[in-house]
Amino acid sequence: MKILVTGANGMLGQDLCPILEDEYFDVIETGRNILDITDKQNIEEVFDFNKPDFVIHCAAYTNVDKAEEEKELAFKINETGTENIANACKKADIPILYISTDYVFDGTKKGKYQPEDKTNPINVYGASKLAGENAVRKNEKHYITRTSWLYGHHGKNFVETMISLKDKEELKVVDDQIGCPTWTVELSNGIVKIISETMPYGTYHICGSGQTSWFGFAQKIFELYGADVNLKPCTTEEFPRKAKRPKNSVLENNRICRKWETALKEYLELRCE
């Protein structure tokens, strides 16, 4: 099967593409220099030339706080760009798999969010990704894979930020937001599972199993890293951000991924090699 990956140069794409190749898929890697998802003609040319059998749409606007100031750009990429890719897939009669986010929910639910739960984003980024979901659903052959608290070796993320701050005299981390830390490799393996097992079209949650707060996540990072850090819990109100965050980002993933602690341990071991 020939799989075209958008956003192949991103944090997820750089782990996903080699994993797909290891499963003997023929991978067409596209970055912004090859495929501009906001340019319909460019998309048509790339699809006509490569003739993919399947598309994994990773390209996205992902700066959550900056999206509050760049709403038009966030929607141009996450809604219009996604709609362009989805339409091209529909025209070619091939499936699309779209990477979405826990931020499509408002975080007020008690317990884990199920894929069918009502969405209600509370920031521009979440709203733009939900608009992308709605665009993708117009193609019957679609998979929507929501993930959360993503980290990987090939991009800026919470794990690397914490490690870079390990020498601070005191480090405060939010303890009243909970979610599911997810390594890009775990998400990639979940995507492969969906494709390889030809799972039914629809919406899936692919994230680390279990849950923690950002503070708990930081504690585990430093424990596994072997760093003695003066870590203090704080509230969301003590650490204001431009974009509101859901208090509860815990997704039901039906055990598609391993426990988040197990994945984090392997991530850090590989990081130190």
List the helices and strands and how they pair.
Elements: E1 2-6, H1 13-22, E2 26-30, H2 40-50, E3 54-57, H3 71-92, E4 96-101, H4 124-136, E5 142-147, E6 150-151, H5 158-164, E7 171-174, E8 178-179, E9 182-183, H6 184-196, E10 202-205, E11 212-213, H7 214-225, E12 231-234, H8 260-271
Parallel strand pairs: 1-2, 1-3, 3-4, 4-5, 5-10, 6-9, 7-12
Antiparallel strand pairs: 8-11
Write up what this structure looks like.
It is a single chain. With 273 residues, this protein is α/β, with parallel strands linked by helices. It has eight helices and twelve strands. It has helices at residues 13-22, 40-50, 71-92, 124-136, 158-164, 184-196, 214-225, 260-271, and strands at 2-6, 26-30, 54-57, 96-101, 142-147, 150-151, 171-174, 178-179, 182-183, 202-205, 212-213, 231-234. A six-stranded parallel beta sheet has the order 2-1-3-4-5-10, with helices on both faces. Strands 6-9 form a two-stranded parallel ribbon. Helix 4 links the parallel strand 4 and strand 5 (142-147). The longest helix is centred in the N-terminal third of the chain and has 22 residues, at 71-92. The mean pLDDT is 97.
